[in-house]
Amino acid sequence: MSVKVKVVDESSSGAVVAESVFIFPSQAISVRELIRTRVIQEVQKLNEDADSTEARTGLVRQGGGNAQQRPVDPEIQCSIALEAFSSSGFFLFVNQEQMTSLDQTVLVTPNTKVSFVRLVALVGG
């Protein structure tokens, strides 16, 4: 049974940068699958609508400013996002509990709060 869940992107100060609804394949999923599902759906949106601001504010990064970008590869973007999670490039919270392992299992429902917190490098350090 698939589940629709609201996902928010937050800055390190707690400000909400973006909100989206993602459809997850089941209620019990691993952190790895949560990230992969989000990235795959972002890539689909980005590839369908190159002007989509929503897709560009998420985990997917499309390089360059060329107006004729090639379609974004979801597997490459998944690898980048999973590596970023593993190297603390962003934090993931589910119902205000920080996820620390890609293999953790979480239960998602329509009322679950999922937050991605992107870290910003300090200038000069």
Automatic annotation (TrEMBL):
It comes from Isoalcanivorax pacificus W11-5. It comes from the Bacteria. Residues 51-71 are annotated as: Disordered. This is Uncharacterized protein.
